Each structure stands twice: as structure tokens, then as C-alpha cells.
Give the backbone structure.
Amino acid sequence: STTPPLFTTPVPTSFFHFLPLSHPFHKPKAFPFNFTQISSMVSLKKQVVNVAFAYLVFFGIVGFLGLLMQNNISARNPLTIRHEQYEAKLSRDASSGVAIVDGATMNDVALGLGYMHALDRGMQIFLQRFVAQGRLAEIVKATDETVKVDKYIRKFGFERSLVHTMSLLTDDEKEYLKAYADGVNLYFQRNTRPIELRLLKYNPLEEPFRPEDILLIGKLMPLLGMSDTQAGLEKFLIEVMQSPNGVKFAKSLMKPYLDDMDDEIVKLLENVTLEDTTIPNEVLKVIGSISNSNNWVVNGKLSESGKPVLVTDPHMRIDHLPSVWYEAILKTDDNYVTGITVAGVPLVVMGRTKKTSYGFTFSPADLMDYEITHCRMNAHNQVECKVDEPDVYKAVNEVTEIIKRKDMDSPIEYKVRQLSHSNCILEAPQQFKEGYYLCHAYVSQTDGGAYAVKAFTQAVKATTVDGLQKSLRHADIGMNMILADDQGNIGYQQCGRHPVRQHSGLFPFPSWDKNFRWKGIVDANELVSYTNPDNGWIATANNDINPNRPFPIVNAHMGNYRVDRIAQMIEKKINNEEKFAISDMRRMLLDVKSEQCEAFMRVLRPQIRTRAEYQAFSAWDCTYDRESIYPTIFEEFLTTLHVDVFGRIFSAHSFKLLKPKIRHFYYFDRFILDYSERDQWLWKSESQTDLFKRVFEEVWSKLPSKVDQWGKKNTLRLGNLFWSKALPPFVTQALGIDVEFEMSGSRATVSPFVKGADRAVGVSWRMIADMAYGMVLTNLPGGVNDRIFSRYYVSDLFRWYRGEFKALSPL
């Protein structure tokens, strides 16, 4: 059979192809202007009317031109393209508009996928290339923010390392990338460029898309995901350890991974000058950053269909349109693969082939380290740093990057300095002065991207779980892969290029101490890998998974909250002797019960359940429904508890400044919930139960008479990558370019949503793959096309919000 039971409804579209503002699932905020007041101000009213009219005329012209320019590829109107020896037939899924690319070989398919990416996500491809090249200030707009982005990217030298990275690929792999790049360029040779590129005065034909650009974009995604998160944690810990009682607290917080940090390193840390090298917000918005994810699989003995069922849902920044993911159905003469790609990269990173399916969560593996070094100016006016004992200094390798600025004559010279014995990037001020500094070593700095190409191009050819494991274990991205095949096998494969360390990796070490330096890369065959466990299922959620090695490759996981909740739901079904249906997997994907909340409520409930005014809250089951007020109350309690406890160490103000720099909230929770005797210096005479009760009563006493529902506090606004910056919010929201929702879920629920000061993270794609059927069920927060007047701009958005699925089938 090819079609399982579906959970899907038609998505209505208008001329502008978004739901009207009256739609119950579309809840924009109040209009930002009071027109009753404005009406008394005649001149201002005229200005508003004139501006509004100008915008309507502008968008009318843009929309009309967009409809004329759009290549009308559809199920009824396919297009065959040819270039050199390759040929591909292009069409769309009739109901969803998802691209279908048909070719004799994968190189034919790569040509077609490049063409479709350029058609549907042309603006996104080139924005990502501008970021990956460090050229936002040159091409888009010269601001302090874009210059900061360019500096951040340039310091890693990705463009400079491309010759080496390309040399790691085989001729066949290079030809595959070339076919894709040819497809992108072929589209722009035949069709007009997107209006955004016209406004930027950028012509893709003057700088054709290159195979090297694929590697550039591929290098960024793992860096901007867990690797940068790890760097943020380690920098946070250094800041903490420079404060009074900081070393004692850090060792308790991250036990046991700082236990081996000796007094010499602690003393060095006191003298280290820290530079602000956090990743700029604009990079994450354009490229995307995977924060967390879930995946699980059950074997055929546990499913209604009698075949394995695999489920995956990567969690990323989702507050922008278009989505970072691009769905596609790719078909060759003897195989097919349906899944997600990234515009600009011809790799299906999660999906379903004819024989297998695969999905990953990011492994919270530590792929970077900080070193401490002492640097000074030598007699030749060069920066030199200590690299050996006793007092052996060598000049750093210095490269001057030229950052051009749009509409400005004077470029910026940016000096990138690396230690002579490694690629470790020195984090020192441009106007250098002698001192102790950190340098940042990243394992995939020069090789990044190449091993992912090798792994995923081989994975789509695999016919068994064993074949998938052999292909994917060599990927350079830290991943927990869940796998299944149509023969009934299920499996797990840990992936990534992990440095061989002589310590935990969580604290910096002296650059001159050779005992701490990396000793190569962990053999891929030593990574955790297994098939067909006795319990019949596998689940991961960025939890602690380490191979049997002297030192860990994961030293800061994301906790067990989500994986424990998944395990609960699976085991409950098994204990009831019930088989898993598609509907069960859907229910699990949409689950918003928080095990984090339960862990704290187990301590709090006995202290408050006897008070009448607290009983309703005490009976709450920790479900983060958007219509409930109890998540709002609990989150206020948890925030106040954190400030109360950790404010004793840093001061409440300092903690509020430090905490946003770290996403590893699990360790803060563990510190409070363990209430260890080794931390009596902090707890003093107050018991854990007294602490919880005191803080809760304080929060309760300050609650307003009407507590906001969780959805009012937990809103998601999706803005267009280009137009939301170019136009006022009331215009983009009124025209449906920006969309706003009230969300369920929290940081620790299976279906998560986390709203920060400058970003929002949630489910970026959902897939259910039952190996009994030749298709997958999916949804994502966006649509196929990045054209704001396209019928596919938000074609999947409301389906995603309602938790409904569409069927994607190559058959």
C-alpha cells in the first residue's frame, strides 16, 4: 500500500495566498496605531494615507511582476531541463506544491534540484551565500550588525580553506556538486532574478553559484548549531569562574567534568581577558541553528503496520519565512528519496528512500576547545604567543581580511590571528596589547562540509540500516541518527568528527602544555552504533550518549526531560499491549507535558497542596497548553527560584545578564534539585522544601488578579528574511508577510517552543515514516516558496500549527 491514514485538511488560499486575519488560528496583535487620535491630525493623516497608498501600489506592482516572472511548474505543467549530459523533469506534488525532480541518475536529479531551489528559494540561496562568504556589509547593507556578522564568519577562514576542503572529495562527489550548481545557474540564465536581488543591485550571473558555495553553506550549519552552543557554555563558565565563589559553583554545576581542572588553570583564568565573540543574531536568522531535536523509532512488532515507524522533528529557530528547510521528492530510475534539504545544498539530510528512512537529533558533542595563551609584541612588531615551555613564543599567523561596505568608499581591515602550531583562532582585540587571551579551536574549521557530502550522498544509496550506519558515521556533523529499513531493522548511529582529548574538554587549557593538545580524530568505528535492541524501540533527544572512551565526547548534554517523556509514552503503549498507529505518533509529536515541570512540582506539591487557594495549581499535570494559566504561574516561579538561588553567587542583576548566554538549563535545574551537601556554602540553613515554599508564596502573592494564558506570553511571530527588515511591521502584518501565533509548549516539552528576547525556537519540521508505505507524512512552519505573493509562501504553515500532516509520495 502507498497511503496510510492521513491527518490533513485543505489549506485555503486567497489572492495573496495567506489566510485572512479573521482566521481563528491567525491572531495578530492589535493594530499599532490609534486612528481615532490620528484623524484629528489632518496633516499626519494625509501622510499615513499617502504612505499606505504608496505601499499598496508598490506591492501591487511587485505582486503582478512576481506572478508574471514565476515559472509555472506544476503537476499539470512539468518542465524538462537539460544541461551538458544531464537531464531532469521538474514538477510539483499536486496538493502541496512540493518539488518533484525526476532523473535517470542522482547527477540528473542534482541538476533539477538546483533549478528548483533557485526557482523557489533564489533569494534565500544568495542570502546564505552572502553570510557564508562574510559579505553582508558589502552586498546587503553596511551597518554595525552586518559588519559584526562578516567579522565573525571571516575569522574561521572558511573561504580560505575551500581548496583544501574540495581536495577531500572524489571526482564523482565533485561532479554531483557541479551538476547542482549548474542547475542553480541555469535557472538564472533563463529567468529574471528575484526582486530582492534587484533591489540590492546584485546580479547572480556576474557571480555564478559554485560547487564551493555548497561547502561554504555546509560549513556553517554545524558551527551555528551545537558547536556554537558549546562555545557559549564554555565562555559562560569562564565568566563564572572569574567571579567570587565562581570556581566552586562551576564545579558543582557541571560535575564531574571540571573536577580535573587544577589550580594552575584556575589562576590563569583569573588573568584572561575575554573578548565578546558570541555569534551575531543575524547569522542564526539567515542560516538557521539547530538547537534541540527529537527522534524515535519502533520496530514492526510494535506497530500496526507490521513495519518500523520512524519519527523525527528538528528544533530550530523558526521566527522567519521562508523556513530553513526545503522539502523535495527526488526520483531516479532505481530509487527515490523524499525529505528535507537546505537551499544551496543538494543533500537530503532527513527523509525516506525506497528501502530506508533516517532522521537525526544534533548530538551535544563537544567539537571545539578553548586554549589559554599569553601573547605580546615582539621586536619585529608582530604578535607572538607562548606555544611551549619554557617561555617559547612564536609569531601568530596573521591574515588581513578586507570587509567592503556598501555605498562606502573605505573598507574595514580585520586581522585574523591564529596560533602557529594549530588553527586555534586568537580572541584578542584588533588594537593589540600584551596579556592572557583565549583562542578558539574548532575541529571542522578546514575540513567542514566535505565529510557531510560524502556521508549523505552515500546514505541515499543505502538499502539497509547497516549500510546507513557505515555511510553516516563519517559525517562531520555531531548527530544522533535513528534508522529503519523495509526489512524490519531499526538502528542508531552516532556521527561526527570528534577530537581525541586528554581531558573532559569543558575547561580551557594552556596552549603551551602539549599534554592537553588534540591527538587526532576519534575513529568513526568507535562511535556508538547498534541495531535491533531487545526492547524494540530507540529514542534520542540531545541526551547523554557517550562511547566507551577514557574521555567523553559529550560533556554538556541537554538533559533527559524530552527523552524520558518519549520513553514514558512508548512504554505505556507497550505495557497496555497496544500497537503503534500513525495517530499515536502524531499525538506524541504534539505532546506538551513537561518533565522539567514535574521534577520541580514533585518537591513543591507536598508543600502547597493543603492550602485551598493553591489546590487547582497543585493538581495541574504540567501540560503547557496555550489556553492554560498554570504554565504562566510555574514559569514565574521557576524564574524567581533561579534568580533567588544563583543571584546569591553573581547578584540577581548579573545572573539575569549571564543566563541568556547559556541554553543548557538542565544543569541549573540539576543544581537546585540535587541540593547537594557539597553546596551547603550556598544553601546555608534553608532546606530545599523551605526554599521552594518561600519562593512560591512570594510569587503567588504578586500575581495579578487576572493571570495571562500561556499563549499570550508565548507568542511566535514569523517575519520575512528580507521584507520584514525593509517595511514597517503594520504593513508586513496587514499583508500577511509576517504571521503571529499563540503557542503551546516550553523548552522541555516534546513539542517545544521557546521565545527569547531576539529569537524563537520550535519544531522546524515533522516527519512520520512508516516503512509499510512508500511515502512520508510531514509538515513545516512555512511553505515551498520564498515569493511573498506565491500561493506556496505559507502553504504548510497553518497545517503545521494545527498539527496536521500532508502525504508526500514519489509513487
Confidence is low (pLDDT under 50) at residues 1-44, 282-289. The radius of gyration is 27 Å. The longest strand covers residues 368-377. The chain is about 35% helix and 20% strand.
